[in-house]
Specification:
Pfam families: ABC_tran (PF00005), TOBE_2 (PF08402). With about 350 residues, the chain is an alpha+beta fold. It has 2 domains: about 230 residues, 3-Layer(aba) Sandwich (Rossmann fold), CATH 3.40.50; about 120 residues, OB fold (Dihydrolipoamide Acetyltransferase, E2P) (Beta Barrel). Helices cover about 25% and strands about 30% of the residues. It contains 8 helices and 20 strands. The strands form 4 sheets. It has a 6-stranded mixed sheet with strand order 6-7-8-3-9-10, sandwiched between helices. Helix 2 crosses helix 3.
Length: about 350
């Protein structure tokens, strides 16, 4: 196990700047995810860590050693690709042993490591099968076993679950996290799936437009986003532009027509003009008449989506704006329908205040 330090890394392709002065320290034994939309630079950064690309600026250290100029095979990393990259003409055991043969590991040692790697991913009885005889989840585990067999210091995962169906993907998320915790290897995952990153990671780095927007534990990123990009990318967010009036905050757009004042908790100071966020699941929904001194409004249901344990509602405010709400399905004997009158409310402590520069 080793730490990974990305120090001021930049990478440009022709006129496109894929990464701009990115610095991250990934601790030994940590499960760290690089999360962001397509084209944000996360795969480019993973390839720089792996040694498949060279940075135009900056350096990469693994275990305290500068590996920026080293080829991939000298970096002591294991890599799992999006398409698994298994050799179709080789058995499971031979696929897992491939990296060991390239490194000229003795036959007895190869057998020991292959057996151990297949045991780690719970494929002990499938050593002689061919890749086409395996399910997608089993192929993914073979790819992980092959990466682990070389006993790397760092494991790199390039969207390894993206080709699986939803049910299998959830199962493999659980297995992957359990495996990483058993082995204790430093792991870097690239994904655009926020739920996957939140589920698997000790910490997450949010990339946007080639820049590191924020790093932190999953709960911290969700509850305390550093900027609008993070707030909108990690989970859903209702955003309100507000301005102060006599110590309270009156919305400039949606809520001014509803006459609803927005109050903040004392722990969340805001500037004279701020951008506030309320998460949909924090909005309390009722069809019974309510009186609001603050943080509430009458509304009407515009859209209803049944999502199993929860509902996803879009409600229209009197001023014409919309707000997303996510109440528990169990709260309703009869589900709301478009056109129903409703009453929305949230606590002051559930309002997230973004930095002043985000207020536009």
């Amino acid at each position: 196990m080793s730490s990974v330090v990305i120090d001021g890394v930049a990478r440009q392709f022709d006129n496109h700047r894929a990464l701009n002065d990115v610095s991250i320290t990934i601790e030994q034994g940590e499960f760290f995810s690089l999360l962001g939309p397509s084209g944000c630079g996360k795969t480019t950064l993973l390839n720089i860590i792996a040694g498949f690309l060279s940075p135009n600026k900056g350096r990469v250290l693994i275990g305290g050693k500068d590996v920026t100029a080293l080829p991939p095979y000298q970096r002591h990393i294991g890599m799992v690709f999006q398409n698994y990259a298994l050799f179709p003409h080789l058995s499971v055991a031979d696929n897992v042993a491939f990296g060991l043969k390239v490194r000229k590991v003795t036959r007895n040692e190869q057998q020991r490591r292959v057996t151990e790697a297949l045991k780690q991913v719970r494929l002990e009885g499938l050593a002689q099968r061919m890749p086409h005889q395996l399910s997608g989840g089993q192929q993914q585990r073979v790819a992980i076993a092959r990466a682990l067999a070389i006993e790397p210091q760092v494991l790199l995962l390039d969207e390894p679950l993206s080709n699986l169906d939803a049910r299998l993907r959830k199962e493999m998320q659980d297995e992957l996290r359990a495996l990483q915790q058993r082995v204790g290897i430093t792991t870097v995952l690239v994904t655009h799936d926020q739920e996957e990153a939140l589920t698997l990671s000790d910490r997450i780095g949010i990339l946007g437009q080639g820049e590191l927007q924020q790093t932190g534990a999953p709960a911290a990123l969700y509850r305390q986003p550093a900027n609008r990009f993070v707030a909108e990318f990690v989970g859903q967010a209702n955003l309100f532009h507000v301005s102060a009036q006599n110590g309270r905050y009156q919305a400039r757009d949606h809520f001014v027509a509803a006459g609803a004042a927005l109050q903040l908790s004392a722990a969340q100071p805001a500037g004279a003009s701020s951008l506030l966020i309320v998460r949909p699941e924090r909005v309390q929904f009722s069809t019974e008449p309510q009186q609001f001194a603050s943080n509430g409004s009458v509304a009407s249901v515009k859209e209803v989506s049944f999502a199993g344990a929860t509902l996803r509602l879009v409600c229209q405010l009197p001023g014409g704006g919309e707000i997303r709400v996510q109440p528990a399905e169990a709260h309703f004997s009869q589900l709301p329908a478009p056109g129903d009158r409703c009453y929305l409310h949230w606590q002051a402590a559930d309002v997230i205040v973004l930095p002043a520069q985000e207020s536009v």
